[in-house]
UniProtKB/TrEMBL annotation:
SUPFAM superfamilies: WD40 repeat-like (SSF50978)
One Gene Ontology term of the molecular function aspect: microtubule binding
InterPro entries hit by this protein: HELP, WD40/YVTN_repeat-like_dom_sf, WD40_repeat_dom_sf, WD_repeat_EMAP
Alphabetized UniProt keyword annotations: Repeat, WD repeat
Pfam families, sorted: HELP
Keyword Repeat: yes
Keyword match Repeat: yes
Entry protein name: Uncharacterized protein
């Protein structure tokens, strides 16, 4: 049974459950340009909000890079397409 707390009272411990990010739907294109690249691995890299995303389109799987504290506004890829840099 769920623990019921009076309004305004805080829990003494964190809940046992947590959230995980499975898939991001969307693309930041309304105020950013040239921010989608194909890597030498064949994966696609882009950003949405504060997440850097690497998409393996063949397997429909994404990897997430979530160390930014604000929206990512720029993304660059090295000439050999092996390194990615993002900026907020």
């Amino acid at each position: 049974m769920k623990e019921k707390l009076p309004p305004g009272e805080k829990r003494k411990k964190q809940p046992d459950q947590g959230l995980t990010l499975d898939f991001v739907f969307g693309y930041r294109g309304y105020d950013c340009r040239d921010n989608v690249f194909s890597l030498k691995t064949g994966e696609i890299v882009y950003h949405v909000a504060a997440l850097g995303i690497v998409l393996n389109a063949e397997q429909n799987v994404q990897r997430f890079y979530n160390c930014h504290t604000d929206d990512i506004l720029c993304l660059a890829v090295s000439p050999d397409m092996s390194l990615v840099a993002t900026g907020q």
